[in-house]
What does this fold into?
Amino acid sequence: MTNQISSGDTAWVLVAAAMVLLMTPGLAFLYGGMTRAKSTLNMMMMSFATMGIVTLLWVIFGYSISFGHGGSFIGPISFSDLGANESALPLVNGTAPYAIPVLAFAAFQLTFAIITTALISGSIADRTKFISWCLFAGLWATLVYFPIAHWSFDFGDANGAGAGWLAARGLQDFAGGTVVEINSGIAGLAMAVVLGKRVGWRKDPMRPHNVPLVLIGAGLLWFGWFGFNAGSALGANHLAALAFMNTQIAGAVALMGWLVVEKVRDGHPTSLGAASGAVAGLVAITPSCAFVSPIGAAVIGLLAGVICSLAIGLKYRLGYDDSLDVVGLHGVGGIIGTLAIGFFGTKAVNSAGKDGLFYGGGTQLLSVQALGVVAVIAYSFIVTFAIGKFLDKTIGMRISRDDEVEGVDLTEHAETGYEFDGRGGGGAVGSTFSGHS
Amino acid sequence: MKLITAIVKPFKLEDIKVALEGRGIHGMTVSEASGYGRQRGHTEVYRGAEYTVDLVPKVRIEVLVDDADADSVVTTIVDAANTGRIGDGKVWVVPVDSVVRVRTGEKGSEAL
It folds into this structure.
């Protein structure tokens, strides 16, 4: 079969890639608004630095490990040149080729690797040594993200050879419930355990310092998520439209579900709750967006909104300081979404999909989904914990107690996020210009 | 001379300014303050985590007046600031030894 490039498909995937890249600054706003004023820049820098680090690794070997059709566990560790010499994506497991250049696919998937790594930073707010985060991001992308992307996303060559082991078993993960959401959520848990609690956790007030910034971030994420999910169709077609619609439905219903829980439990629906609910729904629909009907998407959204809003309180009972609820949102939401396909999956909307339990497909699909969930949880936690411990024992993952109290923005970056000096000059009150370097 | 200090609800600042200007007081110093009295604070909830906010925002108004004007200025401020609800604030008066206007060097009542 010839590899004919479709300009429509290519245009959509390129736009989608740009949309997904925008999610990482969006995440920086979401996270940066939730921290205290003294650590907002460091929080945002962890996302921005990840864009630099993971892009470089992607070029050198990341794309090859993820999508190079190697063993069932990882692809070949080699310089792939991102398939720049190949015209179009080759046949995928015997089905018709996607009509887009390999480079468009590589660019699109790169943005996934970036945001997944950046997501982890939410669990270690206010206290992480910046250079250690940079090293962690590189090691984590290499040892955890690239392999797991290969497991679930690499369907092998024209004959299915060289596919990842979960993809080969028929795991349904359209846009990254296992690869992105569960993976980052569980990695966040491991890192929260490695770093330990912030100074003053559960005693000092750690209120979000800028909720409007959180809402801007949530809005950008929501927008980008259409690229994330509908772009994963790798073409401008029916599946993309289905994924697009289901993404909107799940985000919207989860937003309402979260607010209802807050109204009933605390008496007030909150803005932070609205942002959190939307993210929870978008997380849960990520793996399932092209495998379920719109009604299925609504149920998944409702489950995500309600369950995640209850799950984020667990950290106080269990005593780990997952600062910005990476576990409760991405871990729990990803598990809900990935397992939900086993119940709500239906071939009526996607002939390449499978019927779940509620559509007469029995438990076969559910068991594959559960295997994917358990495998990713185990691998992600163990390897992330090992990377974190290694860095902590060698160069240290945490800043000193004094620096943490002073504020990580000032001590790690020599900057402050806000400047209210009436003179309109730079720096804090009483500052003077003392020359440049 | 007296220094009158008033700690009041922020949204009452405009009413007090108008009332003081109405009786010929044309200068004041205003700063943002926070604190609590019998009113105590309030509770905020973020992702289910409750925070008790002890300190509520207030405005601190300072006015310098002649001894003879002190009582009536206090009455003007109190009338303008009153809502009848808990948390309306407080006004107090302290004696001032000397005042100098920076621009002209005038002293005492001349500087007011």
